[in-house]
Amino acid sequence: MHLQDMNEIANFKQGSSKGCAVNKLNYPPYIPKILDDLMYSKTLCMDAKQTWGDHYDVHSLYGYSMVLATKKAMDRVFGENRSMMLTRSSFPGVGKYSGHWLGDNAATWNDMKWAIPGMLEFGLFGIPYIGADICGFFDDSPEELCRRWMQVGAFYPFSRNHNAVGYKPQDPASYGADSVLVASSKHYLTIRYTLLPYLYTMFYKAHTTGETVVRPVMHEFYSDSETWTVDRQFLWGKHLLITPVLDPGVDMVWGYVPDALWYDYESTVKYEQLRRNPMGLLIAPDDNGNADGELFWDDGDSRDTIENGNYIHYKFSLKQGVLTMQVTHAGYNDPNNLKFDNITILGIPVPPASISVTHVGTTNSTTTLEPSSIHHDGDKKVLFLRDLRLTLGETYVLEWEVIRIDCHPEEHADQANCEARGCIWDVSKKCGQGPWCIYPQDYGYIVMSVRESSLGMTLDITRNRKYRSSGRPQSRDIDTLRVEMNYHTGEMLQFKIFDPNTKRYEVPVGLSLPATPETDENKRLYKVVIVNEPFGIQVIRKSTGTVIWDSSVPGFTFSDMFIQVSTKLPSQYVYGFGETEHLTYKHDLNYHTWGMFAKDQPPGYKMNCYGVHPFYMGLENTADAHGVLLLNSNAMDVTFLPDPALTYRTLGGILDFYMVLGPTPEMLIGRPVLPAYWSLGFQLCRYGYANDKEIADLYKDMRAAAIPYDVQYADIDYMERQLDFVLDSEFKGLPALVDSMRKEGMRFIFILDPAISGNETQPYPAFERGKAADVFIKWPKHISDGIVWGKVWPDYPNVTVDENLDWDTQVQLYRSYTAFPDFFRPETAQWWHQEIKEFYEKTMKFDGLWIDMNEPASFVHGTVDGKCLGDPKLENPPYMPPLESKHLGLNHKTLCMNSEQILSDGTRVRHYDVHNLYGWSHTKPTYDALLDVTGKRGIVVTRSTYPSSGKWAGHWLGDNNASWDQLYKSIIDFEFDSVFQTGADICGFFNKPDYEMCLRWMQLGAFYPYSRNHNGKGNPRQDPVAWDKPFAEASRDVLNIRYTLLPYLYTLMYEAHTKGNTVIRPLLHEFVDDKTTWEIYKQFLWGPALLISPALDPGVTKVNGYLPNVRWYDYHTVNVGVRGQMINMPTPLDHINLHIRGGYILPWQKPENTTYYSRKNPLGLIVPLSDSGTAEGSLFWDDGEGIGNQVTHNGLAIGDRLKLGVVKVWGAGSTKITEVTLTVAGVAHNLTPEHNVVSQVSAFVGCSFLLSYTSKHCRFLYLNVNN
């Protein structure tokens, strides 16, 4: 250490021993207000000469120049070791080399006070290593003054007690070993030494980023004008507020506490228990329970450790009960083998049930802390974690939860209502939107018996009657339950909770389960642990120890009309619960609740929409994935908790959970129908065609514009008064038009609604035959046995509809009574099939069917007169999920809940239980009829869906709005619901789209699996030829790309059908080890290889997108760009960014105006090489519409066989390739390629070779090339 004093420069003479000459330097025309009004007072004459110039000019730089010279000397003396220098005289920039003390102060209360502004000012000058002489330099320091000064001086960056000769000693020991001053000094210096790693890290931040170390309060709270005058308090960095005593004779100090969550350090931290060597963390969460910080660590002595990388740097983050200790740099091995031994977390009111520690490395390992390492002070709300032994320089994740399950999810929760349920009213937890009424820790059920076998286990559990009922007297508690656990496979298990004494409704949806369970425990990826009280099931992934399901939390309730169960989640990364609009792909877990009940409700934030999908995928911190399905079809809601956790509430049935463990997300999804090839083409529809001529004109204009286009629709306009199976007179030419279009390779799809008019004055065969077959939903026989009438689209006969009237009046005056078929019944399926067949054979042909309004939707509530018969609790149950218009009951815009339906086995069920299955039950009979009537595969498109609907149908996302937010949310809505042929109405259904948005939507929609432009009545046309020539051309160009890649898309559909792979997939599915992808929701992939990065905001010319760390080729330019980072991609209005992943071969064909013609073109291959120079891929090819087993390898008809066309090898290198060998059936053929060494693309033609089709599924490996 080197101390530089008297370097102002100080002189005990005035100028020199001979005085100073009279000149303008020593006596300038103007003299500032300085000591003695003399320029050379206590220093040299101003005309003295220095190397840098006259002393007059460089006087104030003398100390700075001395620092520079001393720095050079110290570097030579100390070599590679760091040293410390202090200078009394300073100038801006001196802080790069030296610290500073505030000079020869006096032992006065005033000088102690003014040391704080002095330090803060030097911090602004870039001199963070600053302090005052503690207890004063001059004069004798009184004990109280010195004691208080030792307290505040313990928090000076430069902390030194120093005084002058001739005065009493003032070091702490001089006051006596048992003095108050010694005890106080030891106390606060212990705090300083405890926090030195924090202080050292702040100096690292000052050194690398210029941050201040000691800083005024206003630096952190500058928007709070009260802090602008605070100069008797100061901060260490952002997080430690020091409020010293600066006046004599006081035992209380006034200070300003800014608006944030603050903890009293001395009353909460047991710092004296920290050991000398190990590291520790002190965590003070904010109002949201979050905190962050950093640590810099090196040998503390060597120079240039940062420049040489010889250091350790951590970033710490506490979010929602997860403490991440992330090493960002580990270039130093501490010789003391330091560990993080103790972690103290403030503001934890309840002890966690358990704490897991994950050591993140090449092989992640997770352990659970022993109870002896966890200590909780309930009075102070402090959690102490001890004896952790976490190695310095390694990354760790610690997780703990104290779950606050809401005991009063209804409105109007108060203390009286809460405690009446036996729950705890706790308003002390300021946790955002978290509940104040929470369950006691032992609220729930208790295990009474367990019977285990190699197949699973059976438990009997009993409600803990220490507590009152669920608080809903109308919903009878079920005190005794049975739990059945089935180990279906090594990856899948089921647990089912039900009433063993009274049969309850169970969902009649069959799942694909193995015939025999997995009895070998060694082959199971999971193990199951039962917690006895409160009862809970823990499912643990064996390979990592991660608990992926843990329902051993309070609040489990099972009553007749209210069932609730909660589980802890392994991470905050939860995706799924499809058709519940949310803002991002990953769910926000901050106490958000989503109601689920099928309804004729356009997409909207937190609105329950057309379908119900109680399935979610969870990602674990180890990048493993699992999926959970609740097979329950009653009205329900789910609440996400930040712990992280999830609460289910359902209004009936049983709890029937299926859990699938996959090492990656791609193993979790079901197997959908294989669609007809043509259904992957572009499609057009509009509600509001006035007549068949409008459709004919549209078709002509689309062909003239050369825009690819395979399918035309007719909405309910084609029906006479919106009656199913009856053609309107304005569309009498439609059958001939359809025939003509189909001959030219087009396909046609018509809409059908389930509701059938019952008010006809002339015979209406569909109703008459349905009534005779008793297919319509009725009341239970003990009530009425009559049809439950609603109103939907069909009008009364012989009326003229005044569309200027309000909607409710139109419904009342013009809409006829409608009956709803019960599609569960085999008789209904037969009737529906007959009606579809007769329409196809006697009215007009079609290729697919579009079924709408099958939630089921009704324009009246419950029934025509609004009076639902039977138990009123079914219409307005004791608990109502947060549904749209929930105050109007479950029958709002649908049938009465007490309507009766009959399952295929004859079981009579309430609509209350099966409402969410109506669209599901409608889908298979429609699909079966389509295949039988047309003799071809075709497609069914349905609005209301439930898990497994995708086995028979595709889905559109309903009546969306022409708005930018609906554009981007359409990507999010490709959920885990096994319906893979999905898409939104391009350009929006409601309202008028603007030009830019519609064009951007056409670009995005070109990559929907189900690509259809459709809008609503009363809005202008929005099809591609309805705008201008540039719009049509841009639409044609992007659709040509779609059609070019349809062989690849069709192959993905085949793999979805046979393997359960997704077609549209988020980036995380392919790059699950890259956690950046876990948050991405504005980009998506076709399969593993095509990355789509659309423009989703108005006015943008660039898209900020992420390219994972593999080789990517720009589809348009074949350029290879950056990887593993976010980039700005130029996106003019006529452009969408597409990238192809190296290593994957994509089959392609030259596009035509329909797939009928494009399928006749030779098959090309795009071969983008990986970093290793290889690529592979596959192709599935068949006739595109055949019925039967689509995966049997039985060959193709000659007309469906393909010739190999152009093969484009991307990334072929800059060395000229002169020969290509193509091997067919073991015979090698030499081809001459065209090789562009600039773009590194090599192309060759193989048109003379028929692709071998002994099977329908071909696998391509990279073809040999030679140079």
TrEMBL record:
<dbReference type="GO" id="GO:0030246">
    <property type="term" value="F:carbohydrate binding"/>
</dbReference>
<dbReference type="Pfam" id="PF21365">
    <property type="entry name" value="Glyco_hydro_31_3rd"/>
</dbReference>
<comment type="similarity">
    <text>Belongs to the glycosyl hydrolase 31 family.</text>
</comment>
<keyword id="KW-0326">Glycosidase</keyword>
<dbReference type="InterPro" id="IPR011013">
    <property type="entry name" value="Gal_mutarotase_sf_dom"/>
</dbReference>
<dbReference type="InterPro" id="IPR017853">
    <property type="entry name" value="GH"/>
</dbReference>
<dbReference type="GO" id="GO:0005975">
    <property type="term" value="P:carbohydrate metabolic process"/>
</dbReference>
<dbReference type="Pfam" id="PF13802">
    <property type="entry name" value="Gal_mutarotas_2"/>
</dbReference>
<dbReference type="InterPro" id="IPR044913">
    <property type="entry name" value="P_trefoil_dom_sf"/>
</dbReference>
<dbReference type="InterPro" id="IPR000322">
    <property type="entry name" value="Glyco_hydro_31_TIM"/>
</dbReference>
<dbReference type="GO" id="GO:0004558">
    <property type="term" value="F:alpha-1,4-glucosidase activity"/>
</dbReference>
<dbReference type="Pfam" id="PF01055">
    <property type="entry name" value="Glyco_hydro_31_2nd"/>
</dbReference>
<keyword id="KW-0378">Hydrolase</keyword>
<keyword id="KW-0472">Membrane</keyword>
<keyword id="KW-0732">Signal</keyword>
<dbReference type="Pfam" id="PF00088">
    <property type="entry name" value="Trefoil"/>
</dbReference>
<dbReference type="GO" id="GO:0016020">
    <property type="term" value="C:membrane"/>
</dbReference>
<dbReference type="InterPro" id="IPR030459">
    <property type="entry name" value="Glyco_hydro_31_CS"/>
</dbReference>
<dbReference type="InterPro" id="IPR013780">
    <property type="entry name" value="Glyco_hydro_b"/>
</dbReference>
<keyword id="KW-0325">Glycoprotein</keyword>
<dbReference type="InterPro" id="IPR048395">
    <property type="entry name" value="Glyco_hydro_31_C"/>
</dbReference>
<feature type="domain" description="P-type">
    <location>
        <begin position="395"/>
        <end position="441"/>
    </location>
</feature>
<protein>
    <recommendedName>
        <fullName>alpha-glucosidase</fullName>
        <ecNumber>3.2.1.20</ecNumber>
    </recommendedName>
</protein>
<keyword id="KW-1015">Disulfide bond</keyword>
<dbReference type="InterPro" id="IPR000519">
    <property type="entry name" value="P_trefoil_dom"/>
</dbReference>
<dbReference type="InterPro" id="IPR025887">
    <property type="entry name" value="Glyco_hydro_31_N_dom"/>
</dbReference>
<dbReference type="InterPro" id="IPR030458">
    <property type="entry name" value="Glyco_hydro_31_AS"/>
</dbReference>
